[in-house]
Design brief:
About 55% of the residues lie in helices and about 10% in strands. It contains 21 helices and ten strands. The protein has helices at about 5-15, 25-40, 55-65, 70-80, 80-85, 90-95, 100-110, 120-135, 140-155, 160-180, 185-200, 200-235, 250-255, 280-295, 335-355, 365-370, 375-390, 395-400, 400-405, 425-435, 485-495, and strands spanning about 240-245, 270-275, 305, 315-320, 330-335, 410, 415-420, 440-445, 450, 465. A five-stranded mixed beta sheet has the order 1-2-5-4-3. β8 and β9 (about 450) form a beta hairpin. α3 (about 55-65) packs across α9 (about 140-155) and α9 (about 140-155) crosses α11. The structure holds manganese (II) ion (MN). Manganese (II) ion binds near residues 55, 79, 80 and 147.
């Protein structure tokens, strides 16, 4: 197929994904978004050689698989038009809606912050704050994750240096972010895509060393499965049983643990058995049946994440049993709904709340109702993530969620983050960067555009101070609009 036919076929695929959608989609608007993207990126190519517009199309397809709403799909199609095609937000507002414009701009801003390729404290701090500031709308982060997923799928086209840098950033930032958002499927894909670029030697070792172990484990599970299916049929419980292979990256991480020390025999879930049932109560019946046929392993036995979900919302029952030939096998039991949540996390929740807001109530909804669905629950997730990363006493950890939204995070062009009070101006920013910087101030750019020095900064703005060669005394008039104590003190001091 030539490029145009492939694009057309993929666009048709996108449209078919909207059959069985939980919320209505206006196909005319989707068509319009597609045409807009095609026009904007006309003539542009990716390093893979394909037309550029294939990238936003694949991003939108990923978002549609997560069942995101129409605005997010359009934002996926348009996510690079500001950055790479010189389109203005006002044009998106005009042709689509303010919401879509805001989403596209949000994604553009996230992409503009340089996440420098290091794991040093400053970098991680900046990143966390960036997400807190930027992602007032969870969909911005989801579009970014979809964008990154497609970029990782096509990473082979880049040069070695960039491959490694992007893959590293994916492992350090985006995969953990997906995990914190409960998107297990996304986290898994990102990790396995990044693994060979970041740790090529280790990847090759795990891949070849694990082969036989995977095969053996699958055989055992197959044996168990047959016996169990018969029993379930007798008990009239409908189940689906499949084998879940541990993916390479997490297998490697486990093998590297001190207590495992690269001993495959110590890994009981290289292939786990997964049992899917309809209702929560069936999970416990299934557990009884499994334990009736295979003895649970003492002490390392059962984890009931249904009664006590993991912080990211993960629900499932895990048990370890003695399988054929005394081999230890992990069995995971959950409902289809829990399964979907475990794979798609916040995206799945989002669908429920969307259904809810449309007034459709059904048993699916009921099952998800125990989960916190207010719009800040995921911010709590991010803060949990932050705690996990370092024990430094970050002030953010102490900040209450309800005041987070009133904070004003301002960015320098290379990704440093400054927490400035409401009403802060480029002058306050300049003093926050360095007390000497205002002596050279010639002007200020916000998000790439020149602004007056009394411009009031908004959270998420990227501020660049334009410097003059000559040193000048700070202007006393700045006192009329500077708001930080630091700026006021410094201006007074030099006047
Ligand atoms: Mn992109």
């Amino acid at each position: 197929m030539d490029n145009n036919h492939q694009l057309e076929a993929d666009f048709q695929l996108l449209k078919t994904l909207f059959n069985n959608y939980p919320h209505p989609i206006d196909m005319a608007v989707i068509e319009k978004g597609w045409q807009f993207a095609v026009e904007a990126h006309r003539g542009q190519k990716r390093l893979t050689g394909e037309p550029y517009v294939n990238h936003p199309l694949q991003t939108a397809i990923i978002l549609a698989r997560w069942k995101l709403d129409q605005d997010a799909i359009i934002a996926g199609l348009l996510h690079d038009v500001i950055e790479d095609a010189g389109i203005k937000r006002s044009e998106i507002n005009r042709d689509f809606s303010k919401q879509v414009g805001r989403l596209v701009e949000g994604v553009t801003k996230i992409s503009n912050i340089k996440l420098r390729g290091s794991v040093d404290q400053v970098f991680v701090e900046n990143l966390r704050k960036m997400f807190l500031a930027m992602a007032k709308d969870i969909r911005v982060v989801l579009v970014k994750l979809a964008d990154r997923t497609h970029n990782m799928r096509t990473l082979y086209a880049l040069d070695k240096d960039r491959q490694k840098k992007i893959a590293k950033e994916t492992l350090e930032i985006y995969a953990p972010l997906a995990e914190r958002l409960g998107m297990g499927e996304v986290k898994t894909e990102l990790e396995d895509l990044a693994f060979p670029y970041v740790y090529p030697g280790e990847y090759n070792w795990v891949k070849s060393a694990s082969k036989n172990f995977y095969r053996e484990a699958e055989k055992h599970i197959d044996l168990m499965k047959r016996g169990l299916l018969t029993k379930f049929r007798k008990e009239k419980i409908e189940v689906r049983i499949h084998a879940r292979k541990k993916h390479f990256y997490s297998l490697w991480r486990k093998l590297e643990r001190e207590e495992v020390d690269r001993d495959f025999d110590k890994i009981h879930d290289i292939v786990a058995m997964r049992i899917l049932v309809d209702k929560t109560v069936d999970c416990y019946s299934a557990l009884g049946i499994v334990h009736g046929m295979f003895k649970p392993v003492p002490h390392i036995g059962i984890s009931d994440f249904i009664a006590q979900p993991k912080p990211n919302g993960y629900r499932s029952i895990h048990t370890k049993v003695f399988g054929p030939k005394g081999r230890i096998v992990e069995v995971q039991i959950r409902t289809y709904r829990m399964h979907e949540e475990a794979e798609w996390g916040v995206a799945a929740h989002w669908v429920y709340s969307e259904i809810k807001s449309k007034g459709v109530s059904d048993s699916l909804l009921e099952e998800g109702a125990g989960l916190k669905m207010n719009k800040f629950w995921w911010v709590r997730e991010l803060i949990g993530w932050q705690k996990q990363f370092s024990d430094t006493k970050d002030y953010l950890a102490a900040v209450k969620i309800d005041i987070l939204k009133h904070r004003n995070f301002i960015f320098s062009p290379n990704g440093d983050v400054y927490d400035l009070p409401a009403g802060a101006t480029p002058i306050d920013f300049a003093y926050a960067v360095h007390t000497d910087l205002p002596n050279f101030i010639k002007g200020a750019k916000v998000n790439g555009k020149m602004v007056p020095l009394n411009y009031q900064l908004k959270s998420g703005d990227v501020v660049e101070i334009v410097k003059s060669k000559e040193r000048k005394k700070p202007n006393r008039d700045w006192l009329n609009f500077a708001v930080t104590a630091l700026a006021k003190r410094e201006i007074k001091k030099s006047n």
